Each structure stands twice: as C-alpha cells, then as structure tokens.
Amino acid sequence: MPESAAGRGGEAGRPAVLDELAAAPHRLVLSAAADPEVMDLVHSMLEHLFAHHPQVTDPIRMKFEMSVIEILGNIVEHAYAHDSALPAVDPSEARRFEIQLLATDREVVATLSDNGMPVSLDLGDLSMPDELAESGRGLALAASALDTLWFERVEGRNHWCLACNLG
Amino acid sequence: MPESAAGRGGEAGRPAVLDELAAAPHRLVLSAAADPEVMDLVHSMLEHLFAHHPQVTDPIRMKFEMSVIEILGNIVEHAYAHDSALPAVDPSEARRFEIQLLATDREVVATLSDNGMPVSLDLGDLSMPDELAESGRGLALAASALDTLWFERVEGRNHWCLACNLG
Amino acid sequence: MELDVSTRDDGIAVVVPRGRLNMVSARQLKETLSDLVAGGSARIVVDLGETTFLDSSGLGALIGGLKAARQAGGDLRVARPTPAVVSVFELTNLDRVLRARESVETAFDA
Amino acid sequence: MELDVSTRDDGIAVVVPRGRLNMVSARQLKETLSDLVAGGSARIVVDLGETTFLDSSGLGALIGGLKAARQAGGDLRVARPTPAVVSVFELTNLDRVLRARESVETAFDA
Ligand SMILES: Nc1ncnc2c1ncn2[C@@H]1O[C@H](COP(=O)(O)OP(=O)(O)O)[C@@H](O)[C@H]1O
Ligand SMILES: Nc1ncnc2c1ncn2[C@@H]1O[C@H](COP(=O)(O)OP(=O)(O)O)[C@@H](O)[C@H]1O
C-alpha cells in the first residue's frame, strides 16, 4: 500500500519529488484535451520515457504504465462527467489536462492535473470491489501497484502524483 | 513560398493564428529535453493530431510533418551547438523546447520554441544548396512545403510558427 | 487494438485482442463478446497472447463477457496472458475467476 | 527505423530502410552505405518502399552514399519511393539526381 493522502489539506503528505520534478531537465510534459483518444499518445510518452531509462525494470514499467493510464482514464471519464450540468465554460478552459513524467535513479514519477470538478475520494481507504464487478477497480489497482499515490485540489485544479520506487 | 519574417522586429509578420492557438481547447503541447530521441515522440503527436483531423489530406500531412521535423531537428542540432562554450547553466534551464500543434478547418499549425542561442537567419532568402550537398536543405525544404514559416526571438527564446493552409 | 474473432469447428469462439486493451478498446471488446453470446456462441476463449497492455476497463470487459457467457449456459476462458496481463490479474486477485489457460486449443478441456 | 542489408548474386547490395528516415536513423544509413562501399560493394540499391518518412538528413545520407559509390566506380540507385519520399524528392528538385526506379530488381538495368 502506498503513502497516500487525499485532500487532507496542508503540506503533510506532499511527495518531496514534486519539487525535484519542476526543475528536472529531462521531464516530459504534455498538455492536451482530456479525451479518450489521447491515451495512446500517453502510452507513446511512457515508451519514450522507458526507452531512455533502462534502470526502470519491466515489472515496474508495467505497474507504472497501468497506474498512469488508470488515473488518466478516470480524469477522462469522471472529472468532466457533470460538465453539461454546469454553466457553459469558456472553451479555452474546457477539459484540459497536463501530465508530467520523470525517471530518476530512485523512482519513476508522474503528475497529472486537470481542471475538472473537485474529486472527493479517500485514497487511504480503497478496496477491490466484488469479484464479478465490471468497474470500480481502477483506483485500488493503481494504489496497489504504486509506492506513492497522492491527490490534492489546489486553485480549481485536481493534482495527482504517482510514483514507483526503483530497486 | 511562404509568408516569412525573421527577427525583423515588430509585430508586422506575426501570424494571426498564434492568438487563436493559445485559446484552442484541442491544442497539443509537449515540452521536453531537446535531444534527437524526442523526434519519435513528436511523430506520435502528429499521428494523434492527424487521426483526429481527417480534413488534413495526405499530401498536406506529409509536408507538414516533414517541416515540423526539420525545424525541430535544427533546434536539436544547432540551437545548443555552442552550449559547451557558455558558462554552465542551471540544469533546470538546460536545453528544453516546447511544441504546440493545432488543426482547424482552415489550417494546421505548429509553434516551436527553445531556450537555445539566438538564431540569425533570413527566412526570406532561402535557397537549395548544390545538388550533391549533403546538408543545408532543411530550412529551404520546410519553407517550400509550408504556407507560413515565421521566426522571432523574444525574451531569450526562439519562437517558430509553421502552418499549411487546408483546401 | 485490433480484434480478431473466429469460430472453431467445435463451436468455441476465439477472440484475439492485439495491442493495448484500454478504455477505448475495452468498449469494442465488450460489444464483441456480448454480440457473440447474443448470436449463440456462449463458449468463448479470449487469447491474451498478443495483449500488450491491460487496465481495469479491459478487465471489466472480460468480466462482463464472462457473466454474459455463463448466463447463457457457457463460459469465458482466457489463455496465454502476457506478463502485463498477468500482473493486473494478480494485483486484482482475479487470477482465480479469470484462471489463465496455457493454450487456446485446450482452454475448454478442464 | 530498421535497416536490412543484403547482397545479390550479381554483387549488387540492397539496403531497405523500414520506417522513418530522420535525423536519428540517417546516421545509421550513412554508416551502412559507407561501410558497403569501403567493403567493395559500390553498386547499391536503396529500396524506399517501406520508408514512411524522409527529411533532409535522410536525403543527405542518400546523397553521401551516392557520392561514395560513384567515387568507387559504382552507383547508388533508389527504388519504389513511397509518396512521403517522392514529395521530398520533388520539393528539393533531387528527383533527377535520385531518379526513382520502379523495382529493386531492375534498378541497375538502365
Ligand atoms: N479523476 C476523478 N474525478 C472524479 N471522480 C473520480 C476520479 N477518479 C475516480 N473518481 C470516482 O471514483 C470512483 C472509483 O474509481 P475507480 O476505482 O477508478 O473505478 P471506476 O473508474 O471503474 O469507477 C469513480 O467511479 C468515480 O466516481
Ligand atoms: N534552430 C536553429 N538554431 C540555430 N541555428 C540554426 C537553426 N536552424 C538553422 N540554423 C542554421 O541554419 C543553417 C541551415 O539550416 P538547414 O537549412 O536546416 O540545413 P542543415 O541543418 O542541414 O545545415 C544551419 O546549418 C544552422 O547554421
């Protein structure tokens, strides 16, 4: 189970790697419309990241890629679910997300942020649904694959941080 | 031959589409280290763009993709050529570029910007080198494939804008 | 993802998802599986030997197909999972419900 | 890009760049071509039938190979260019120097 914190306020759970990320010359940053088709492009970004970081072993690549895609899939699927009920937004503000990726010698890290509706989730209390459930496994799956899964709402945006430790 | 302007100062030649781009909800933005390996990721971004914009015909896709890759290739190859001669830079500032892509009903547009050394080129005067030359064709090739090729140096960054008209 | 569907002489349908089984392609798989069951093919093998990526939506499509097949008196079995697929089966503890078979041919033998 | 190299019975070398011929892969092509010439294979066909992308660095590698082959008394010919390749040949007016042949087999016939 990962270190996690969900909208608990304060800086307590904020992963230290976030500061490193902002200054890392090799970070990859993509910003795009939050639609399902963008997922393939994020897979390509992960391929690019891994191709240049042989220190990330195959089992960690699989877990990390799956977790990033789960969290991004949730943003695409849920973060804008109630948009149609909201007053029309300025199109420049519509449904965009940003993803940052970085691999260091110690960990592989992703941050995702979106301008969707506030998420209220308790990441400290995720469990797998019934065996025959067809949905509801995404967050629990990411949480069990990651060493860090962290969430915060700041200034109208949702911010996620995901990391797997190396070695 | 495209509309072009190279560091001529003033806003005269600034492509109008730049303002539209900044507010376009479907623009794609990538920022990454300016290394040769990132070219494949930019090819993937272009694939993603074209997959969602059938209005961009094959001949225009080919010309636009080639031009984007030429300009990016120049950034990777030339914009940092003299870095080793410069005083050591803060690693957070090292060799990064940003690319934005957008397709509208009227054109397909890319902007590239980098923090490399100032480029002094006259884009109004590009010609193909000798038939048997092994280099020196990149800018002339991009210029002949594009409808707009524009360059400006602002606040320590090089800014390029490339566009092909549709239909 | 590309999805190949074929039916064997013994009436068992074989579905081969090639590439990434994510949110986008899971919809396609779910429809294909329910069409098969609706069309009378309730014994299905999903060959995961060329599935390079699986997430919870792909898993949901498999479970959906499993339930539909069982309701119609058949079953859905998975064969030849790649390491990426095995990893997700294990993390979700679904390696029992979706017990992986070694080959497509023998998936319905036991 | 992947680069296949083979030598035919008549001594002509056939080089097949598969995928994108850009800055990264042009270096590889340039080396392969000069190794061939240095090794005594100065008659070379580059089969561009699977080259999905070409830029000025790929073009530079082809011209470099052409010059090296000619200096060694041979020649370099290009065959089966894809539309993306033809488009770059035309924009650079190199469709004369790099005259495209219809097939690899007959590339050295005339
Ligand atoms: N980014 C998000 N924005 C809003 N709600 C979310 C987000 N991520 C998850 N949720 C909520 O948490 C629930 C559980 O998510 P998850 O475990 O991924 O399963 P599923 O997506 O299959 O429902 C979702 O159904 C949704 O209500
Ligand atoms: N982004 C850039 N930064 C600095 N110099 C550049 C840049 N782009 C082009 N140049 C200069 O212009 C020249 C011509 O570029 P180009 O036509 O692309 O041919 P080539 O790259 O093969 O030399 C380069 O050799 C370089 O000196």
TrEMBL record, chains A, B:
<dbReference type="Pfam" id="PF13581">
    <property type="entry name" value="HATPase_c_2"/>
</dbReference>
<dbReference type="InterPro" id="IPR003594">
    <property type="entry name" value="HATPase_dom"/>
</dbReference>
<protein>
    <submittedName>
        <fullName>Unannotated protein</fullName>
    </submittedName>
</protein>
<dbReference type="InterPro" id="IPR036890">
    <property type="entry name" value="HATPase_C_sf"/>
</dbReference>
<feature type="domain" description="Histidine kinase/HSP90-like ATPase">
    <location>
        <begin position="33"/>
        <end position="159"/>
    </location>
</feature>
UniProtKB/TrEMBL annotation, chains C, D:
<dbReference type="InterPro" id="IPR003658">
    <property type="entry name" value="Anti-sigma_ant"/>
</dbReference>
<dbReference type="InterPro" id="IPR002645">
    <property type="entry name" value="STAS_dom"/>
</dbReference>
<protein>
    <submittedName>
        <fullName>Unannotated protein</fullName>
    </submittedName>
</protein>
<feature type="domain" description="STAS">
    <location>
        <begin position="10"/>
        <end position="110"/>
    </location>
</feature>
<comment type="similarity">
    <text>Belongs to the anti-sigma-factor antagonist family.</text>
</comment>
<dbReference type="InterPro" id="IPR036513">
    <property type="entry name" value="STAS_dom_sf"/>
</dbReference>
<dbReference type="GO" id="GO:0043856">
    <property type="term" value="F:anti-sigma factor antagonist activity"/>
</dbReference>
<dbReference type="Pfam" id="PF01740">
    <property type="entry name" value="STAS"/>
</dbReference>
